[in-house]
Design brief:
Largest sheet: 6 strands, mixed
Number of helices: 20
CATH superfamily of one domain: Glycoside hydrolase family 3 C-terminal domain
Radius of gyration: 27 Å
Low-confidence stretches: none
CATH class of one domain: Alpha Beta
Bound molecules: alpha-D-glucopyranose
Helix content: 25-40%
Distance between the termini: 42 Å
Number of strands: 27
Strand content: 15-25%
Structural class: alpha/beta
CATH architecture of one domain: 3-Layer(aba) Sandwich
Strand order of the largest sheet: 1-2-3-4-6-9
Amino acid sequence: MEKKLLILSLFFSVLSFSQSKVPVYLDDSQPMEVRIEDALSRMKLEEKVDMVHAQSKFSSRGVPRLGIPENWMTDGPHGIRAEVLWDEWNQAGWTNDSCMAFPALTCLAATWNPEMAALYGRSIGEEARYRNKNVLLGPGINIYRTPLNGRNFEYMGEDPYLASRMVVPYVQGVQKNGVAACVKHYALNNQEVDRHTVNVTVDDRALYEIYLPAFKAAVTEGKAWAIMGAYNRYKGQWACQNEYLLNNILRNEWNFDGVVISDWGGVNNTKEAIYHGLDMEFGTWTDGLAENKSDAYSQYYLAKPFLKLLKSGEVSEEEINKKVRNILRLAFRTTMNRNRPFGSFGTAEHGLAARQIAEEGIVLLKNAAPSNSPKGEKPILPLNMNTAKKILVVGENAIKSMTIGGGSSSLKAKYEISPLEGIKRKAGNVKVEYARGYVGEKNAKQDGLAAADITDNRSPEELLTEACSMAKDADYVIFIGGLNKHDGQDCEGNDRKGLGLPYGQDRVISELAKVTKNLIVIIVSGNAVAMPWVNSVPAIVETWYLGSEAGNALAAVLTGEVNPSGKLPFSFPVKLTDIGAHALGDYPGKDKEETYRESIFVGYRWIEKNKIKPLFPFGHGLSYTQFTYGKAVTSSKSITKNELLTITIPIKNTGKLAGKEVVQLYVGDEKSSLPRPLKELKHFIKIELQPNESKNVTFDISVDDLKFFDDQKHEWIAESGKFKIYIGSSSADIRTVVDFELK
Ligand code: GLC
C-alpha cells in the first residue's frame, strides 16, 4: 500500500512539476520522503559515493550540480570549536570564531534540571547555526564507569536515567535551530586507554540497562538526527561498522532514521562499513590510521574502493542508496530547510545561559562551621562579605584557563572569567590576595591555542611557604585546585593514573588547614578525586569546568547571591576499589580485551550492593537552606501492570533563604528472578521554594519503572511482587520509604 501511495504521490508531483517547474526535491510543499527519492533519482553514482565520506577534516560533499549543499560538522559538546585548516587539526587562525564556552556536560548533568538542558541545547545550537555548521558533534553521553576516564567531563554521569532525562532536551534544543545533534560515542566508549582497539565484552543486561538507555532516549524521544560511532570494538567489530549496534539495535529496534557518522578515524574496512550501517566516514587517513596523503579523501574506505565494488556489481546500488537517503534526510532537515532560524553567536544571552547552567550545576559537597567555632556557629559558607577584611585565594586553578585543551572539546572562547577574577569582581571592599600555592603543567599550547602564560618557576616549598604565611591573617582562605585539561588529567586520548589530586595539592591543603580554620576547598574537575583532607576543612565545593562564566558563577555561589542546588551525577568513592571496574580488576583491560564483569552494578549500584560508604554519594549536594520531607501519600498499596501508582510528598524550605531542591525517587525490587541493584533512580524533579514555603511533589510510578531487562527473553519485564519506593535528597539521604506491590 505504502509503495503504491509513494508512486502515486511521485506521479502527481512529477505532474505538478511540469506546471511549477521547481524540481520536486526543491519543492518545500512536497513530503520529505518524496523529495529524497526525487533527489536520489537525479544523482550519478559518483555523486552518491562522494556524499558518504569526508572531503575535508570537518566537511563532506553535497551535490554541486543539483544545488544540494555540503555538510559541515563541528565539535563540540561545550561550544563551537574554532575553524581548522582544510585537512589539519591546526587552527585556521580566523578572527570571527571565538565562541561562548558553556559549562562541561558533567556540570549540566549536575543541575538535574532538564530546563537547563533545553537552554543549553538551544544556545549552543544557535551558535552552531550562526557559524553555518549543520551537525554539532555532541552531546557525549557515555556512562561514567571509572573515575579515571579522561573524557568523563564531556558526559552526563553514572546513571542511565539521569543521562536520559538530560540528553533529550539538549538534542531537541540543538535541532530547533536546524542543526543536527550527533550523539556520541555509540557505544561502550567508557575509557580512553586503548580506545581505538579495546574490545568490550558486556552482558546484555548491562548493555540494555546501563550503557544504551541514554542513546535510546536521544533517538526515540529526542529524535536525534545523527549518531557518532565509537572507536572501540564490541563483539569483535569496530563500533563504527558494527552490525549489532548499528543495524540490529539502532535501526531495527529503535527505528533510527538519521545518519550514522564515524568517529574520526573509526573506520578501517570497506565491506564492514558498507554492510554494517555506517553512513558517513570521517577522519580516516588513506590506509587506516597512517598519515594522510594529498588524495586521502578519494582513498577513503567508502570512496574509490566503494565505487569500484559498485561498478563491478559486487555490491548492489541499493547499499549506497540507503546511505544517501539518510544524508539527504539530514540535508532536508538542516541546510535545505528554508524555515530554519539564523542563530546567533557569542551573545550576552548565551553568556547568561552559560552562567545560569554553571550556577545550577555547582555542587556544595560539605559546609560546616570552622572547627574552632562555638557550638551552633553557622556554616562557613556563604562568605560574610560584610565582616571579612581579607580573602586569600590559593591555587593554580584560580587563574588557569580551562576552556582550552581536553582534546576535541577544546575551545577558542570569546572570554573566560577565571575564579580569581570572579571573586575579585564580587569582593567590594574586601581585599583579595592571591598565592599560587602549587604549579601544575606549563601552559603549553593545546589544540593550537595558547592560554595566558602562568609560568611560575618557584619551588613547591617556596610556593607553600608563601601561601601559608599569607593565610595567617586572612578571614577566608579559598583553595582552588582540582584537575585540568592536560593529557593524563581530564583530557581525551588518555586516562588518569589514579584518583588523587596531582601536583602535591593534598599537601598544600593539609598545610593550609593547619594555619587557618576558615579554609574552603574548590575542586575544578570533571571527575571524582580522593580527599584525604576531607575532615580537616569545613567546606568543599565541586565546580566542574564552567566555561566562559566560571568566575562569575563561582563567586555568586560563594557569596550567597546564588544558593547552590547542584547534585552529583556520579559517586565520589573514597578509593578506586570502591568502584566495580577497579574492584574486579577489569579496567583497563588486557591485550585489548576488557570484560565489564561488574555488569549492571555501576556507580552507586555497586556501592550499595557492597555496602560501601562513599566519600560523597550519587545525587548528593547541599544547599544554604534546609528542606524537610513530609509524609508520602500513595494512591494505593498495589497496582496492576496497566495502572499508575501516584505518590505525593510535601517538601518544605525550613531555612531563611530561597533555594532549589532535587527530589529524587528510587525504586527497589524486593525479589526478582535475576539480580537487581538495591535501588535505581526512576524519577526526579527540581523545585524552587521560598523560605517557609511548602510544595507537594507528585510522581506517577508506572510498570515501566519496575522493569528490568531479561537478557534470555531479550525483553524488558516487570515481575509481580513487593517493591520499595525511596524518596530523598540523594541516593544516601533517603527521607521516606514506601512499600507497594505489583499485582
Ligand atoms: C575525536 C573524538 C570525537 C570528536 C571527533 C572530531 O577523536 O573522539 O568526539 O568529535 O574526533 O574531532
